[in-house]
Design brief:
The chain is of the alpha+beta class and 735 residues long. Helix content is 49%, strand content 17%. Strands 9, 10, 11, 12, 13, 14, 17 and 18 form an eight-stranded antiparallel sheet that branches. A seven-stranded antiparallel sheet has the order 22-21-20-19-25-24-23. Helix 17 runs antiparallel to helix 18. It is flat. The termini are far apart.
């Protein structure tokens, strides 16, 4: 190349003509092309294998779920659908590049999920209507209400039951027939009452006209009452929808929220009766292919409908606006039908997949329908009524939702730290016991009640919950108590500890008597951490109980190399933590002392559990407690020896001893103190008065020393004379 001038060598570069550059690049390009083809083959193989796995997983489960739906077994359908949803989420297949079989499979899964939720909503509506209708019938037959009130209650409950009935629960149809006969009976009673009020006489025409007028007036009054009750229920539904929308908007504004506000388009389908393929005008469930729940959430996306083909809406989306206009509690179907358009622009709130309210999550302890009411002092709070909600119990809290797939209400989520779950006792020694009013009202609704109360006032009210059976109540109570025990085990250990300064162990020549100078009283907080989540335990200390940055003084490293020991310190109820952090040049020893034996045992158990979480090898609890017990006995004997040595000091040396230590020496010598020299009497004295008290105390101790020495001499003489043959030599030794 140099000879043919195809390449020229410069001072710092080699210049090549284009033909030479292409020849040099050809080999590299061939390798790159081969690598790209290999990567594509691997990607296609992975996609095919994942697709086959999903297809093998989906169709058997889908067949079983459809059989459960046909048998109206919603529990089995939901239980089978949970692993199927987890499998789809784990597959993470790009649906746009997958074959048509997988797209059909995904559409079938979405349809199944919609059918399950529609069945849940239907059963929920029928169950609620069944309870209200049964309550109205029981009130009517009890004789405690007037015929007019009974007629209004049965009329309202009957209309609600007829609207909610889908033929899912046979007992509802039987109860509707019973309610219709009871309604006819109430109407007959009202006609008789109207006849008596008008003084009905078969032979008197005027009296008969008066009775007819009375009956017409009563019917008009009943119709007005029914209208008022229906308007009240409609307003309650509007308030409920408004509450859900406000919750979503507030959650969307928070940082790191799992709620997103999106704008999607909802189109009408094509008119199948028209040859011009024109789109339908106005909203209809069949034309748009979507159904909405009572809270304006997408309850079902019909298979093959326009909403499924567009793919803009998802199950669980809550509609907030239609064409830029807020709903303000109005039902979305009413707002859509008021606009005769081929398409609509909807503003929806969408939860992330992790935040959707399924009850099959790994952290869920128990979930189910409950009736809930807030109370205080055994009485329901003013303005509150029992609500039927879906309760989800996890490892830290109890959350309430409007439906199993609905949204968690913030004001209905309570933490379980410090909660007390109580099941009422109705009979004792063969006698019936009265329940508080809130529990009694729940029992009247044929519910089995239990209460949740917070001992330290973490929640400003009590919760009265009611479930369908006694077994459900026992299961809920056990689950809540187990969660509380877990919270207590994982709760941070906090309290005052006395900390040795310097964090290097004991200084040589330090006094064995308390209090030891230089030790500081600090507020320590120990967090256990979470090994499964990768959260390490921490031990921090503050200048005051408030855990703030301003009061934070330091931390003790707890890692796999940390060592917990007892008995090395000369201070009672103390222990040491020896550890080395990433920024420490050498291991650091932190010496801490507790106020008593029980406090020391509590801290040792908590620290041992935290170090086990950190991966450290720690001695067993029995070995730590035995070491602490040996330390206490050893320090007690050392303290007694030190006090005995102090009791033999002269007066000048005693004046240099602390006043508190002088009281310990006086107690050892059994000195009888006058009332003005008691420790409680000298605690608040000034410096001069304390010095006077010290002088008097030293004088009393010296007198006790003289008396003790005289007793020792007399005891020695008596011992010496009692020894035969050595009395004289022993006497000289004693002298």
């Amino acid at each position: 190349w140099l000879g043919s001038l195809r390449a020229v060598v410069g001072a710092s570069k080699v210049y090549l003509i284009e033909a030479v550059s292409r020849a040099l690049e050809a080999s590299r390009q061939r390798q790159v092309a081969g690598a790209a083809l290999f990567v594509q083959r691997c990607g296609r193989g992975q996609l095919v294998r994942a697709t086959v796995r999903v297809l093998r997983m989906h169709w058997p489960v889908a067949t079983t779920v459809r059989a459960a739906l046909a048998a109206i077994d919603v529990e089995t359908a939901r239980r089978l659908l949970a692993p199927l949803a987890a499998g789809w989420a784990a597959a993470k297949l790009p649906l746009r590049s997958t074959p048509s079989q997988l797209l059909e499979c995904r559409a079938d899964f979405d349809s199944l999920r919609g059918e399950v939720r529609a069945l849940e909503d239907g059963l929920e509506a029928e169950t609620e209507a069944l309870e209200e209708l049964g309550l109205a019938l029981r009130q009517a037959t009890s004789g405690k209400v007037s015929p007019k009130e009974a007629y209004v209650a049965i009329k309202l409950a009957l209309s609600a039951a007829a609207a909610a009935s889908r033929g899912l629960r046979p007992e509802l149809a039987a109860l509707i027939e019973e309610a219709e006969s009871a309604l006819a009976s109430c109407q007959g009673d009202l006609e008789q009452l109207a006849g008596r009020l008008g003084g009905a006489d078969p032979d008197g025409g005027d009296d008969e006209l008066d009775a007819t007028a009375q009956l017409a007036a009563m019917e008009a009054e009943l119709a007005a009452e029914v209208s008022r009750q229906e308007a009240r229920r409609k307003e309650e539904r509007r308030a409920r929808r408004r509450e859900v929308a406000d919750e979503l908007l507030a959650s969307a504004l928070e940082e790191g929220s799992s709620v997103a506000i999106l704008t999607v388009q909802l189109r009408n389908g094509v008119d199948t009766e028209s040859s011009s393929a024109a789109r339908l005008i106005g909203f209809s469930e069949g034309g748009c292919g979507v159904a909405f729940s009572e809270t304006n959430a997408v309850a079902a996306i019909h298979r093959g409908g326009q909403a499924m083909r567009d793919g803009a809406l998802r199950l669980g989306d809550v509609v907030l606006e239609v064409d830029g206009a807020g709903l303000d509690g109005e039902h979305v179907v009413t707002a859509l039908r008021a606009r005769e358009q081929p398409s609509y622009e909807l503003t929806v709130a969408r939860l992330s997949e992790d935040a959707r309210g399924d009850d099959g999550g790994a952290g869920t302890k128990r979930a189910g329908w409950v009736h809930s009411i807030r109370a205080r002092g055994g009485k329901a709070l003013p303005g509150t009524t029992p609500r039927r909600l879906w309760a989800v119990l996890d490892s830290t809290s109890l959350a309430f939702k409007t439906s199993p797939h609905g949204l968690t209400l913030k004001q209905c989520t309570v933490g379980l730290s410090g909660v007390a779950c109580k099941v009422p006792v109705t009979r004792l020694a063969g006698k019936s016991l009265a329940m508080p009013p809130a529990l009694a009202s729940m029992a009247e609704r044929q519910r089995f009640p239990f209460s949740l109360a917070w001992e330290r006032g973490e929640v400003g009210y009590d919760l009265i919950l009611g479930v369908a059976t006694s077994g459900d109540r026992q299961a809920w109570a056990k689950a809540i108590q187990a969660v509380r025990a877990e919270i207590q085990a994982q709760a941070p250990t906090a309290g005052w500890l006395t900390k040795k300064p310097g964090r290097r162990g004991l200084r040589p020549g330090e006094s064995l008597l308390r209090p030891i100078t230089g030790w500081k009283r600090r507020w320590f907080v120990l967090h256990q951490g979470d090994p499964s989540g990768g959260v390490a335990p921490s031990l921090r200390y503050f200048s005051r109980p408030e855990e703030t940055t301003a009061s934070l003084l330091g931390a003790v490293v707890l890692n796999a190399g940390s060592v917990l020991s007892v008995g090395a310190s000369a201070v009672p109820h103390s222990f040491e933590v020896r550890s080395q952090g990433a920024a420490d040049l050498r291991p650091i020893t932190t010496v801490l002392a507790c106020r008593d034996k029980d406090d020391c045992e509590r801290w040792l158990k908590a620290l041992r559990r935290a170090l086990l979480h950190a991966g450290s090898e720690v001695a067993s609890s029995k070995e730590l407690m035995a070491a602490a017990e040996r330390q206490s006995h050893l320090l007690a004997s050392r303290s007694a020896q030190a006090l005995m040595a102090l009791s033999r000091l002269e007066q000048e040396e005693l004046r240099r001893v602390r006043l508190r230590t002088l009281y310990e020496v006086a107690a050892l010598l059994r000195v009888r103190l006058p009332p003005e020299l008691e420790p409680a009497a000298t605690r608040g004295l000034k410096a001069i008065s304390r010095e006077n008290a010290r002088e008097r105390l030293v004088a009393l101790i010296h007198a006790a020393q003289v008396e003790r020495d005289a007793m020792d001499r007399r005891r020695a003489v008596s011992v010496a004379y009692s020894v035969r043959g050595r009395a004289r030599s022993t006497w000289h030794d004693v002298g």
